[in-house]
Structure formats: C-alpha cells, structure tokens
C-alpha cells in the first residue's frame, strides 16, 4: 500500500483575510469536483477544460492510430489528421472529409461521440452555474472604528453598494470571534453575536454604517486594544439581501482583526452636496477616518 506523505495533505486555506494550515485532509480535485469547479478562478477553470480537451483528443487520436487505416481520407501515418478528426468527432461537428471506414473506426468514434456529448453537458452546466450564481458587489471600509456615538461608546463598521441597483430587505450581522480559556485550561475559539442598532435596511442603495453600542450587555464591554490583542479578537460582518435585478439572495462577509480597529476615530462623511445642489457620494472616502473631536473611550 502506498502511503501519502503528511506534507502532501497540508493545504493553506484562506478564510476572509486570515490563513490557516490544514493537515491530514484529502483535498484532491476529485474529492469534491463540483465545488472545486465552482470555486476556482475563471482562468484556471478554462485552463483545466482546455487541458482536458487536449488530453482526450490525444488519447482518441492514439486509439485511431492503433487501428491503422480505419479513417477514410486521412493521410497514411499522419497523427495530425487523426488528431483533428478526433476534435471534430469529440465536438460532434463532423465536416465529412474524414470518416470511419471499418468496425474498429466506428467503435472508437462511437465512444468518442458519447464522451463528447457527456463532456459538453457537464461543462455547459458548470459554465451556466458559474455565470448565474448571484454575487453581491459590496465594498467594505479597510477598518472599523471605536468611538462615541449618540453619547455611547460604539463599535462601527461601514460598507457600500458598488452596483447601481438596490438590494432589498438587506440584513447585517456583526460577530465577535475570540480565544477563550475553559475552566480546564484549554484554549477555545468562541463566537459571540454583537447586537446592532439597525440590523435591517429595506433598500440598500449607497452606503451603510453598522453601530454596536458597547454597554454593560456587550461582550466587548470594558475591552480596550490590549484586551482585544490578548484575546486575538476578530470581528466578522455578514451581509445578506435580495438583489433587485436577479431576484436572488446575495451574501458576502468581511473580517477585521483587532489591529483593524481604530480607537477614538470615526468614519469621515462621504455624502456632500455639489454646486448644482445634487447630493453626491464619494466612494473613494469609504475607508477614510478622522479623530473624534470629543474624548473617546476604549
């Protein structure tokens, strides 16, 4: 029995902006072919398809070559003619210049036509699924802020809709992820939900700022930068809504480390009124922050 080296099962996984090394899990392409086909980049997807197409045509061209003079009008000992005949057969084109002329040639051609029809159905379905999958175009600020808002210490996150269409019945959640030590002295990663002042937005068009009031009921009450660092704190924003164009639910998430929290600062205003009196949104300032004029808490 062949034993796979442990290093062969080591894979780097990215979740948000964090990287984790997974070990001992079989992550070959065929372990979850559909998910891998849906999650790889477009260049890698079409590159894999092209490699498959080339490999299959080389294989069937070789099978035709083993049959000798089984393809009419193909030049003698011309592997190139057999290769292009294989392409025409696999694609079910059939120009008619070359065709099988004995049982062996018809048998291999039949196998290739069946393979080509199956392959076309699979890749057509995958391409349609990739194109039709709804995606939200939501851009997030580079950091979060922690300052006073309406007289209360508040953790804030901001994001904006990068499309010209609206997202209806939008919902947002804010999660606090941190490392805690159990009574047995074991480190454990915990998830705590942070209540928002306005978790729903009926029509999300431009920008949206989330506010979590840090009062006595908040899981981060009394925590400053040093406490969050000791807990290896991580904040996650989850967005879900109904896209107005596709009519389908879209979702996206964004993570922030404790290093991304700016204490004593607030987000700069991105809404202004132009000279012609028309309100304007400056998305270039989405991540801009400024020190709060009043004393902030951390």
UniProtKB/TrEMBL annotation:
The keyword Membrane applies. The chain crosses the membrane at residues 44-66, 108-129. Keywords: Ion channel, Ion transport, Membrane, Potassium, Potassium transport, Transmembrane, Transmembrane helix, Transport, Voltage-gated channel. It is found in: Membrane. It is a multi-pass membrane protein. Residues 55-131 form the Potassium channel domain. Residues 139-290 form the Inward rectifier potassium channel C-terminal domain. This is Potassium transporter.
């Amino acid at each position: 029995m062949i034993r796979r080296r442990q290093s062969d099962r080591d894979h780097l996984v990215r979740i948000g902006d964090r990287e984790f090394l997974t070990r001992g899990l079989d992550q070959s392409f065929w372990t979850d072919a559909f998910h891998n086909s849906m999650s790889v980049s477009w260049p890698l997807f079409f590159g894999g398809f092209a490699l498959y197409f080339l490999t299959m045509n080389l294989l069937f061209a070789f099978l035709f070559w083993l049959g000798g003079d089984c393809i009419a009008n193909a030049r003698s000992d011309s592997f190139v003619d057999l290769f292009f005949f294989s392409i025409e057969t696999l694609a079910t084109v059939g120009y008619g210049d070359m065709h099988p002329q004995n049982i062996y040639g018809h048998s291999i051609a039949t196998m290739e036509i069946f393979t080509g029809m199956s392959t076309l159905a699979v890749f057509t379905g995958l391409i349609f699924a990739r194109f039709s999958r709804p995606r939200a175009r939501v851009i997030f600020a580079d950091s979060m802020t922690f300052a006073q808002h309406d007289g209360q210490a508040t953790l804030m996150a901001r994001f904006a809709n990068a499309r010209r269409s609206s997202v209806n019945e939008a919902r947002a959640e804010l999660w606090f992820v941190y490392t805690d030590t159990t009574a047995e002295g074991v480190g454990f990663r915990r998830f705590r939900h942070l209540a928002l002042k306005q978790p729903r937005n009926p029509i999300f068009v431009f920008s949206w700022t989330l506010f979590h009031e840090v009062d006595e009921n908040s899981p981060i009450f009394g925590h400053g930068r040093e406490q969050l660092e000791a807990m290896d704190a991580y904040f996650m924003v989850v967005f879900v809504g109904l896209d107005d164009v596709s009519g389908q639910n879209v979702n996206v998430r964004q993570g922030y480390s404790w290093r991304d929290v700016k204490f004593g600062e607030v987000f700069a205003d991105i809404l202004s009124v132009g000279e012609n009196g028309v309100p304007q949104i400056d998305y270039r300032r989405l991540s801009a922050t400024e020190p709060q004029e009043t004393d902030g808490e951390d």
